[in-house]
Amino acid sequence: MTILLYDLVGRDGARPFSPHCWKATMAIAHKGLDISTVPTRFLEVPTVEGGVSKLVPVIRDGEKVVADSFAIALYLDEAYPERPTLFCGDGGKAMARFIERWSQLTIHPYVTTAAIMDLHAMQDEANAAYFRQNREQRFGQRLEEVVAARDAGLGAFRTSLEPLRSMLAYQPFIGGQSPLFADYIVFGALQWARIASPYRLLDDSDVVAQWFERCLDLHDGLGRTVAAAS
Amino acid sequence: MTILLYDLVGRDGARPFSPHCWKATMAIAHKGLDISTVPTRFLEVPTVEGGVSKLVPVIRDGEKVVADSFAIALYLDEAYPERPTLFCGDGGKAMARFIERWSQLTIHPYVTTAAIMDLHAMQDEANAAYFRQNREQRFGQRLEEVVAARDAGLGAFRTSLEPLRSMLAYQPFIGGQSPLFADYIVFGALQWARIASPYRLLDDSDVVAQWFERCLDLHDGLGRTVAAAS
């Protein structure tokens, strides 16, 4: 089976960067399904599958269209129950939601701060203008003012990862002995940073960085098929 | 089956207050097992079951002795697989560990700050002296200095619960439609505060407070059998 994924890109169609699309990419690979991507710019998102969602990822699997990375993971697990599970039980489904909320509220704001000028620089002219206008309205600040906070915030960001860091003393993945969708949720956030920006979020000696490297190795090194920003 | 629980108390043997013991209490009730408690003061912990652990909870189930609330929950699920599950799958087991680390590193430090003088006041003379000496060594501060930070920290504490608050827009419990051990982990921390201190951690309008009330209702209102501090 081949899943069609509308995947957010900038000027370079071979550098998908969206954290949420990466969650979907990893989930599709985890299920052992083939993936065919439609590189999609910000301004094209409203036209995806007739405007089914304001955001990507969106997937098409035959006749079925699903938007939202979490909904995609739930769909894939239900549609392909004979393939490796993304949640490993209803408890895992429920708690993955907590981890998604934690990642979104803990990691995403700082990655946005740290990478916002790089994300802007990845877009073509029209999309860069959209991105600047949209994000400056959201933050009530110029992009240049947003990014100015990143050095001062780095220490607090690293501290905010302490629950994950501490958990890694017990098990190699959020999913336990092997990765589940919860791992891809947090992976997506750090992969977004890795692809967009050379800014160094983590020390190599950090067990969180080591876990991220393990995630980059998964599914034949799928995460490494896009080089880190330099 | 009756499980013997060594449960931490202060001067009043009927007011168990330990967050970790409450996790075990709720887990035993969730499994539909009877519970028999041994009220245990701080200074008695080293003598529990021949000194099996530096901390309570410790349970005895027939010949089997288990220490540590998470290990107790895992044990109960393995020993009584025909009774309601505490994890609902291996994914739930793995991710409950993340939630435990999040609760321990996010909620526990602030509850300690907020309730430390009240916790001290709950102990008899010998245990109060132990508690003061032990905690002042840990913090490098007088207890009176620790608690002085609570008003200034309250806003940040409430903000730190945002992942839980946000998750509650999706589902009524951390475990999904019904509670699992992950709920009892966070419940234990807030129940510790509720029993030790009248200090108001949450607004009634907060969905986290509403979730906590739902947890107090569980298992025939088990959590309410000990009145809130006043």
UniProtKB/TrEMBL annotation, chains A, B:
* A Pfam short name: GST_C_7
Q: Which residues does the UniProt record annotate as the domain GST N-terminal?
A: 8-84
Q: Which domain of life is it from?
A: Bacteria
- Give the signal peptide range: none
- SUPFAM superfamilies referenced in this protein's UniProt entry, alphabetically: GST C-terminal domain-like (SSF47616), Thioredoxin-like (SSF52833)
Which Gene3D superfamilies does the annotation name?
A: 1.20.1050.10, Glutaredoxin (3.40.30.10)
Key words of the record: Transferase
Read off the CDD domains from this record. Answer: GST_C_etherase_LigE, GST_N_etherase_LigE
Q: Is the Phosphoprotein keyword given for this protein?
A: no
GO BP: any one term: L-phenylalanine catabolic process
Q: Name one GO molecular function term.
A: glutathione transferase activity
Q: Does the keyword Transferase apply?
A: yes
Protein name as annotated? Glutathione S-transferase
